[in-house]
Amino acid sequence: MIGSLRGRIASKSPPRLTVEVGGVGYEMEAPMSTFFHLPSIGQDVHLLTHLVVREDAHLLYAFATEDERRLFRGLLKVSGIGPKIALALLSGISVDAFVLCVKNQDVDALVRVPGIGRKTAERLLIEMRDRLAVTPPGQTASATAVPASPEAEAYGALVALGYRPAEATRLLKGVGPGTHSTEELIRRALQSAARD
User: How many CB atoms neighbour CB 134 within 10 A?
Assistant: First the structure.
């Protein structure tokens, strides 16, 4: 099992990227939340990975955080959920937002993620409730999740508003450098969209 890679980014074109490690280029796919944290091509990067072995291919998936990888692995255990849907889900919603959806049994929030239908969302909510150790609404226990970065939260909000993942990424990259709150990122991205 390949657990992580540290090397130089040779190419990136969401959702694919190549990291060169010791003269070997590892092709991987990553959720958009991970792409937000990637440095420029030619820069060094450290990524957590998950290897999926199929009859016809060995597929490597990359993640910026352990929470993302843990959720990805949990999603793969749900019947009918493969890597492609798990990656789409992680690209369309932050880890803590997903935990909140499961806690509140919020089907509508999940079906707004591209590629997730109502039946899939319902199955996810049922099967992930036990895996995330989340209790139904109204009970005292609460889910614990590391808060997502402002960029990831803003991305999830823009996708929930109906922007395509690539468009949401473009709008957020256009916000410019600096430390911004989630609300400020969303406000600036929407202002940029209004100007376009």
Answer: 23
Of the two residues 109 and 162, the one the predictor is more confident about is 109
Phi first, then psi, for residue 16 (nearest 5°) are -100, 145
Cα 72–chain centre separation: 9
Same domain, 51 and 74: no
Any idea what DSSP says for residue 134?
Answer: P
The H or E element spanning position 10 is strand 4-13
Residue 19 has pLDDT above 90, yes or no: yes
State the total domains in the chain. Answer: 3
The per-residue DSSP string of 140-163 comes to S-----PPPPHHHHHHHHHHHTT-
pLDDT in tens, 140-165: 333 334 445 677 777 777 776 777 77
Q: What is the pLDDT of residues 45-92, one digit of tens each?
A: 999 999 998 889 899 999 999 999 999 999 998 888 899 999 989 988
| In a domain? residue 144 | no
Residue 189 phi/psi, 5-degree rounding, is -65, -40
Q: Which helix (H) or strand (E) covers residue 73, if one does? A: helix 66-76
Q: Which helix (H) or strand (E) holds 23?
A: none
